[in-house]
Design a protein that fits this description.
The chain is of the alpha+beta class. It has a single domain, classed as Peptide deformylase (Peptide Deformylase, Alpha-Beta Complex), CATH 3.90.45. The protein is about 25% helix and about 30% strand. The protein contains 3 helices and 9 strands. It has a 5-stranded antiparallel beta sheet, with helices on both faces. Strands 1-9 form a two-stranded parallel sheet. A two-stranded antiparallel ribbon has the order 5-6. A hairpin with a 5-residue loop joins β7 and β8. About 30% of the residues are buried.
């Protein structure tokens, strides 16, 4: 089922999320709905707060971004994962810039600096615990989605003039004064 994506301005996007308990009977349906919603909106990642759930889960599928960086160490094609109750253990390397966007903030893309490597502890959909390291675009996608679980949006990284330039556009998005290509929920 395609869920509405919550637009910037919705409280759930700023909340600290809650852990998911093993055996949650709604978990598989939530995962399926999040993937369906993400694919419909043409995204590469989606966190639970973006569909109205203050839970510690996000899904990714990097396939649409495969080959975007020539120097990428590993392919994004078929890189499809579920991260439950994740915890970033470390972010390392020299920060690099890349223009990011977000399904909760359509039609705005801005350059964000992030570390190129991330080590993360998480549970998969079968509640098997993993500790993995990711680099390049995979690390960036994980960091972006993980931020959602902390109540952080990519626009929070923007400074001064850049932030002022998009302020009115962010206000229009939060009030629903846009024409998104996928279902969204705006401030009442």
């Amino acid at each position: 089922m395609i869920l509405p994506i919550f637009a910037i301005g919705q409280d759930v996007l700023r909340e600290k999320t809650q852990p998911i308990k093993p055996g949650n009977p709604q978990l598989e349906a939530l995962i399926a709905n999040m993937y369906e919603t993400m694919y419909h909106a043409k995204g590469v990642g989606l966190a639970a707060p973006q569909v109205g759930y203050s839970l510690q889960i996000f899904v990714v599928d990097g396939t649409p971004m495969d080959g975007i960086l020539e120097e990428e160490e590993s392919s994004l094609k078929g890189w499809k994962m579920v991260f439950i109750n994740p915890k970033i253990l470390s972010e390392t390397g020299e920060e690099w810039a890349f223009e990011e966007g977000c399904l909760s903030i359509p039609d705005i893309r801005e350059e964000v600096f992030r570390k190129p490597r991330v080590k993360i502890k998480y549970f998969d959909r079968d509640f098997v615990e993993h500790v993995d390291e990711f680099s390049g675009m995979k690390a960036r996608i994980i960091q972006h989605e993980y931020d959602h679980l902390q109540g952080v949006l990519f626009t929070d990284y923007l400074k001064g003039f850049k932030k002022k330039l998009i302020k009115s556009r962010l206000s229009k998005i939060s009030k629903g004064k846009i024409q998104p290509t996928y279902p969204m929920k705006f401030q009442d």
